[in-house]
């Protein structure tokens, strides 16, 4: 398995875990009314704002797609915004990150995810929902 495929699988798994985690956050946050101000870091940094915006857009776009009942179509329609979210987050890294290794990783994420989005868009065009 190539590094790019391993990375894509890792990102997909991380996204799924994050989605499960985020489902439980509202309930937990109501139970935990602690003063988190002392624990906060630079939560208003450009990178934090960029990551938040990318994640919010990704989740909204993933939820906006109506299910068709066709597992293949529904999977691809959900994965396109998921991959776009990875691209958007990688762009935040390139705009703000300093570590050469992570910047190179972000460039690889963009290239791999763009290619897979194209593949999925082409597949959807060739397999219209009936």
Textual characterization of the structure:
It comes from Rhizobium loti (Mesorhizobium loti). Keywords: Signal. Residues 34-124 form the DUF305 domain. The chain is mainly alpha-helical and 130 residues long. The chain has a domain at 1-7 and 48-130. The protein contains four helices and no strands. Helix 1 packs across helix 4, helix 2 (46-64) runs antiparallel to helix 3 and helix 3 (71-96) packs antiparallel against helix 4 (100-126). The longest helix is centred in the N-terminal third of the chain and has 29 residues, at 3-31. 12% of the residues are buried.
Key features of this structure:
single chain, 130 residues, mainly alpha, 78% helix
Question: How are the elements arranged and paired?
Answer:
Blueprint: H1 3-31, H2 46-64, H3 71-96, H4 100-126
Helix pairs in contact: 1-4, 2-3, 3-4
The overall strand count is 0
Strand content: under 5%
Order of helices and strands: HHHH
Structural class: mainly alpha
Into which percent range does the helicity of residues fall? over 70%
Number of helices: 4
Distance between the termini: 34 Å
What is the 3D shape? Answer: globular
Biggest sheet overview: none
Mean pLDDT over the full residue set: 83
Quaternary structure state of the chains depicted: single chain
Radius of gyration: 17 Å
Low-confidence runs (pLDDT<50, min 5 residues)?
A: 28-40
In short:
This protein is mainly alpha-helical.
